[in-house]
Structure to design on (115 residues):
């Protein structure tokens, strides 16, 4: 495997990265399918291990891939290996709205208790 410096950072990444959209599996936002489709976590885990064995140390994912399932699988297999770089993106509006609503509910519940 060949490696190179990642932009202006001190990180060194494999020239071939592992795109993790497919391991996220199927996902829906409302009635809209946004995921890859049905996947088998065992096959996904084998793919991650194969990538690591091949020297791939750069993994690309996002919170929207399987509504977080891709990130969960990578975290489960890779853990805190310092030599592995995981690039993730955020912007899952559905998740952000749900978290905001939960936060607001919690805040208002506490405020009501104070009144």
């Amino acid at each position: 495997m060949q490696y190179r410096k990642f932009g202006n950072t001190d990180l060194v990444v494999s020239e071939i990265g592992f795109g993790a959209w497919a391991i996220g599996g199927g996902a829906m936002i409302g009635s809209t399918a946004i995921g890859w489709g049905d996947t088998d976590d065992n096959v996904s885990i084998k793919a991650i291990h194969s990538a690591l064995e091949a020297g791939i140390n750069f993994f690309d994912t996002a919170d929207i891939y399987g509504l977080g399932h891709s990130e969960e699988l990578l975290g489960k297999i890779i853990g805190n290996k310092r030599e592995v770089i995981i690039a993730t993106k955020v912007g899952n509006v559905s998740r952000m709205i749900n978290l905001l609503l939960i936060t607001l509910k919690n805040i208002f519940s506490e405020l009501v208790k104070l009144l």
